[in-house]
Amino acid sequence: MFKRPLITLCFKAQRLFSKMSAMNGKPFTVFVEGNIGSGKTTFLEHFRQFEDITLLTEPVEAWRNLQGWNLLDLMYKDPAKWAMAFQSYVSLTMLDMHRRPTPTPVKLMERSLFSARYCFVENMMRSGTLHPAEFAVLDEWFRFIHHQIPIEADLIVYLKTTPSIVHERIKKRARSEEQCVPLSYIEDLHRLHEDWLINRTLGECPAPVLMLDADLDLSQITEEYKKSEHQILRKAVDVVMRSPNKLSPKKPISSSPIKIVPQLRL
């Protein structure tokens, strides 16, 4: 359905992005957000076919091996003892992803410092896993980074899922550290993602949100992701066209822009 317009957009994007990147090097940044097991890595892999897109997956292996220590495993086994250390290291590794030089004009990131704070740290505070003083330290670090270092996005893709479905996926993928994760934990994270990205009652949503149905099985989810190609590339082109930093004046895209709203279900 989108094959011809998408090819046209790719050529336009490549020319426009090359000019913008030559000026300031700031890529069009997309956060891919969602619950544990929502298919974020699968979504990112779908975009590996585009040579002008850099994919940054969540640094799980770094969390599994910090000088020989598996912080992810320690956190799940004894969260009251290890949550603070784990989230501190998550903040460091995610900040590295935000600030990492990107050779392409588009960057897709699996999660962000925003979801780390508003979903995971928030859940640890509400459940009592973090002492109020520990939460205060993590919150101050987030506020400092947010106000002093550019970590913003141009678009957020929210892979919306049903907690029971992703809980089954987690059990099937058999990541050793996650086998003790209860459904109630997934449900709590789901509510926080919804309050952050959809209801807008929690924290700050730093960019427009494109919501995709990630409950679909593998045979259907590919088509859902193909729809997002057009949405993401079109939004990226529109942003570049409106940028005051573009090298030469261009006529705006004549067709109506695609609206990206929290309530949109493709």
TrEMBL record:
Looking at the record, the residues that make up the Deoxynucleoside kinase domain are: 31-231
- CDD domains in UniProt: dNK (cd01673)
SUPFAM superfamilies, sorted: P-loop containing nucleoside triphosphate hydrolases (SSF52540)
Q: Which InterPro entries match?
A: DCK/DGK, Deoxyribonucleoside_kinase, DNK_dom, P-loop_NTPase
What is a single Pfam family found in this protein's UniProt entry?
dNK
Give the similarity note: Belongs to the DCK/DGK family.
Name recorded for this polypeptide: Deoxynucleoside kinase domain-containing protein
